[in-house]
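pipeline stage [seq->struct] | target=TatD family hydrolase | organism=Kiloniella antarctica | residues=262
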Amino acid sequence: MIVDSHCHLDYFLKDGDLDGALKRARDVGIGCMVTIGTKLSTFDTILGIAVANDDIYCTIGVHPHEAESEGLSAPDLLIEKSQHPKVIGLGESGLDYYYDHAPRERQAESFRAHIVAARETGLPLVVHTRDADDDTVSIMREEYEKGAYPALIHCFTAGPELAKASLDMGFYISLSGIITYKSAENIRQTISNAPLDRLLIETDSPYLAPVPMRGKKNEPAFVRHTAEALANIKGVSVEEIHSTTSDNFYRLFTKAQRPIVN
């Protein structure tokens, strides 16, 4: 079984291809998918997809791009909504200085509110960081000193400093199709030194299709190509990657129910 720990299934719903994408994923052994919240205003749609499918869970949160219009200054709403059994994590939240769609101070304020919610609920926070490694590490460490919380660096594209800081705090790292790109040698080098028992895989679909699907709309079925790339990086079998990353997922996302295999 393979887990796609981060996808955006609401895009497939809007395109009228959700049923097809789910069938294609299940046909190649994707046993669990997590559809990620990016806006509070679309949470009901995200939750609806999860509720309608036994093998799909969701998160609730505000992406840094949306921090100006929907960013949070307190964790209360996240804590309340995350009580639903299908909500297994918080986010994605964090910092994005590449696009700067929201003021950086609003991104940071919302990020901290998500961290507080993670600390209080015990649910893992899905962290988005792009071109903001130093500030991301600084905020995560400051908040960690107030009390531990679980977290996952999603779609890892950073260097060894962020990886080490995250791992030192007990966090996990999730890898997308980017690790299949020729330009990502520095990421592959960093990941080669990361412990396998802290790694997850994801698509971030419909974005970032892996080689050999690059240029196409990404979908959960394609996570198997990322698994193959990670197997090559770590020098282990694809089967071990499937098994270990799935085990890691269920260890981190403790509300998710592992399917019973007959």
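stage status: PASS
auto-comment: The chain has a mean pLDDT of 97. The CA atoms of residues 85 and 255 lie 7 Å apart.
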